[in-house]
Amino acid sequence: MRFASKKQTIEGIDEDAGISLLIVEPEDMWHANNLIANGDVVHAPAFRKVTMTTATGSKVVKNVRTNLSIQVKSTFFDPLASELKVSGTVANENDWVSVGQHHTLTLKYEKADIKFTIWKSEGWDSVAKQSLKEALSEDRPEAIAAVVMQEGLANICLITEFRTIVKQRIDSPIPKKRSTAKESSGVMSSFYDKTLASLRNNIDFSIPRTLLLASPGFSADDFRAYMQSEASRTGDKGLQKIAREAVVVKSTSGHVHSLNEVLKSTQAKKIVQNAKFATESNLMDQFYDRLRKDDGRAWYGTKPVEKAVVEGAVGRGGGVLFVNNGFFRSMDVATRKRYVGLVDKVKDDGGEVRLLSSDDESGKRLESLGGIAAILTYPILDLDEDDEEEEIAADPNDGDMII
Amino acid sequence: MSRHQYIRNLDYGDAVDEYEGYSEEEDELSPEDRALMNQGTADVQAALGVEVSKVTVAQIEEALWHYYYDVDKSVAYLISKFVNPRPKATKSAVQPPNADTAGPKTAAAQPKKKGTASTDAATTGMEGLKINDAPLPKSRNLDVLSELEKSKPKKSASFVVVGHVDAGKSTMMGRLLFDLKVVDQRTVEKLQREARTEGKGSFGLAWVLDQRPEERSRGITMDIATRRFETEHTAFTILDAPGHAEYIYNMIAGASQADFAILVIDASVDAFESGLKGQTKEHSLLIRSMGVSRIIVAINKLDTVAWSQERFSEIKDQMAGFLSTANFQHKNMAFVPVSGLNGDNLVQRSSDLAASWYTGPTLVEELENSEPSARALAKPLRMTVFEVYRTMQSPVTVSGRIEAGSVQMGDALLVQPSGQKAYVKSILANEAAVDWAVAGQNVVLHLSHIDPIHVRDGDIICDPAKPVPKADTFKLKALAFDILMPMPVEVHRGRLNQAGKIEAIPALLDKATGAVVKKNPKIIKPGMVARIVVKLESQVPLEAGQRVVLRSGGQTVAAGLLE
């Protein structure tokens, strides 16, 4: 994303004039989704179906291209198509629509840069500014393609800096070995065939792109070998190159959440220059390690984290606050303010704030913790003290267990 | 077989108004059919009570024949037809099974289409079933439980073979099958020759079970292999599991089908110690948490340490200690010193003098001593699909183990989670066609009236009257093997393997009483028992009492029992 005007800066935001941005790549729509919150006003080009009555009384329905300002009621982001649908009521009337009519704007990347303008209902707070900064950053690494697979299951993913998009999931039952059926190898190659076809359909390899193949066991190796044999069979130079450059990584399963370990593996680290992912993933690992040790420095859930932040325990010297960025999008104004308050407090205390998106793997881990977690600078042990602590001394009896 | 059935069905759909040759049909009845017919006739007469005078024996027999000896349906039909005749309009839709005596020859000559159509008309009219273009498989409506009692079949039991990588699981089972003459000399020699040419001399016996080319070229087992053998009293099913940690999901699938387990341990120097840290430990924990309580420890490769009794005792003591911490009871453990490659103490006693100190039972004797767990015969049908494939008999052939209840030919079934209905065309148990099968048996079902896309590995086949519910969120009592907290996990139940996450941990429980010790604990430490809520990515058939295994990052983190 880019500012529409060269004079515009993040620091010098004129609240009344709003901020005008240009959509320059499909990934921008994901950022736009983070920027636009309910209650904001968005001005963007739109198509509107208008019924007109001619002089003779006949009715004509026309699709009119116009610019509309709407007050946002809800947003919907389609991750596969990279389209953002913004619904709300029209805020400024023009020849075609009157104030208060409903409209849904579809923002997406097109050949010509699309310009849209945002007015924040509550002004640009620190969280909004951080999202804007991320949206405007220019040196983006190229998205990585990855196939996470096991026998009979393959997930075709595209990993960008901010999110992991599962483009397609291929699930085909593989008949297991049995003395009567010799068809197993045939089925495996038809599975690889399907996977390869959908990999090439879903991911554009015309630009140089890293391909990671991950699986437990040998599926990934076999798939790569299959790609190579297909390439030499059909004489497809492009495929040959893809197969040659593909990196095979071990994972513990073929499910998408294994991507986490895949991206942390040494083979992948060498090629994946995804600094954001690496730091976030490391911090999450740190958090989980502390939680494992139960040393009182890792807490999750809104209540304990809020208490810790208020005490100033998330501050200089290792304090990290993790918040799911979805929190700031869908919440009512009061709740949003509360979380923004937490973020600002941590920043003032000198701690680190990480807004993770639930579209990437670290964010998914955070999501399972309830969307908010913190690493404290010093241990606090009783943040959940409203629980009745009635630990019964576990007597080591040798009776049969309940499970 | 199926063709013959088809013709029979055609027969009765056709309304050929001929009475002649009735005796011919009687002649066609086999002695069993005759017995069933007489039994059925008596039942129908009893059911009809005073109305019996309105119906002749011949009509009853026709009705019974038409409904495959289903007394209730025959009675319903006879009442509507002869006792309280309905108006003509209905009758024309309901084709009576008029003495169709022409036999298969005439029917075969009839155009197919017409035959099927009228069969359908009959079924639709009488039972309100949906119209299909193939006849429903014939059901004999047996009372399976009483049949079971009558037939007193051989005990059937399945066991899973587990252990660390390269402990010699497949080789030992190959040898066992060879010694029991399930596999003949020629096959083994051929395999050994092939193995030698590939430079894997010692793998010949393992190749009896490892049949996939990938498995052979890599010299490892990747998936469960199933083989059967019979001893004097019991029909056994071997489930040979892979040892590699990466294929543990296949091992879980195998263990979920087993009554007991053989844990193979490599006794050679250092191999036991590294195994104990590796898969020996994880497999033992897994099989115990999958509900297998009887374990036979085969201490293998003792020939490489000159049948040292000290080595055997050392391993035995360590393993007994470890297994009892894993909740195996001492009376359910057995230890046998064996050599899988040479076959000592598998079927025959070792002839090696160095091994003469061992006087206990051989592996096969230990297997025979093992009592399979009690079967839930009277419960509604549950069968986990182990694999789905295509055969000559049916494009949807499923194999698996019946976990509860019974199934017979012609039964209507429900496949969950797809919710599709199917019919049993035929059943294979121990590679022979049977009319019915009960819980505990590993069977192959040929299904009809269902599309292959609705059946996949890990599905549950159940009784349509009492289907297994499906859900994506479930609560379970879990025993933690590693630290548990809200995190992504993979859920394994038999063949099923689904990604999900631990969503909440509502309570920490007391290990023995199940009482709540602490509410909403932050984390669960290894060895503790907790109630946890798991959410899956999609809906799966789940039922209270099922056992699941949770894994994360290639480690088994917990095992649980659904609530």
From TrEMBL, chain A:
Similarity comment text for this entry: Belongs to the eukaryotic release factor 1 family. Pelota subfamily.
MF terms (GO), sorted A to Z: metal ion binding
Intracellular or extracellular location(s): Cytoplasm
Top-rank taxon: Eukaryota
InterPro entries reported for this sequence: eFR1_2_sf, eRF1_2, eRF1_3, eRF1_Pelota-like_N, Pelota/DOM34_N, Pelota_N, Ribosomal_eL30-like_sf, TF_pelota
PANTHER family: PELOTA (PTHR10853), PROTEIN PELOTA HOMOLOG (PTHR10853:SF0)
Record-annotated eRF1/Pelota-like N-terminal domain positions: 6-137
Function recorded in the entry: Component of the Dom34-Hbs1 complex, a complex that recognizes stalled ribosomes and triggers the No-Go Decay (NGD) pathway. In the Dom34-Hbs1 complex, dom34 recognizes ribosomes stalled at the 3' end of an mRNA and engages stalled ribosomes by destabilizing mRNA in the mRNA channel. Following ribosome-binding, the Dom34-Hbs1 complex promotes the disassembly of stalled ribosomes, followed by degradation of damaged mRNAs as part of the NGD pathway.
Keyword Metal-binding: yes
Keyword annotations of the record: Cell cycle, Cell division, Cytoplasm, Meiosis, Metal-binding, Mitosis
Cofactor(s) listed: a divalent metal cation
Source taxonomy: Eukaryota, Fungi, Dikarya, Ascomycota, Pezizomycotina
Name of the protein in its database record: Protein DOM34 homolog
Assigned GO CC terms: cytoplasm; Dom34-Hbs1 complex
A Gene Ontology biological process term: translation
Main location: cytoplasm
Naturally occurring in which organism (per UniProt): Chaetomium fimeti
The keyword Cell division is annotated on this UniProt entry: yes
Automatic annotation (TrEMBL), chain B:
Molecular functions per Gene Ontology: GTP binding; GTPase activity; translation elongation factor activity
Localisation: Cytoplasm
GO cellular component terms, A-Z: cytosol; Dom34-Hbs1 complex
Main localization (coarse): cytoplasm
Annotated catalysed reactions: GTP + H2O = GDP + phosphate + H(+)
Keywords, in A-Z order: Cytoplasm, Elongation factor, GTP-binding, Hydrolase, Nucleotide-binding, Protein biosynthesis, Translation regulation
Biological process, per Gene Ontology: cytoplasmic translational termination; regulation of translation
Residue ranges of the region described as Disordered: 88-133
Domain Tr-type G: 154-375
Regions that span the bilayer: none
Entry similarity comment: Belongs to the TRAFAC class translation factor GTPase superfamily. Classic translation factor GTPase family. EF-Tu/EF-1A subfamily.
Quaternary organization: Component of the Dom34-Hbs1 complex, also named Pelota-HBS1L complex, composed of dom34 and hbs1.
Descriptive protein name: Elongation factor 1 alpha-like protein
Organism: Chaetomium fimeti
Lineage: Eukaryota, Fungi, Dikarya, Ascomycota, Pezizomycotina
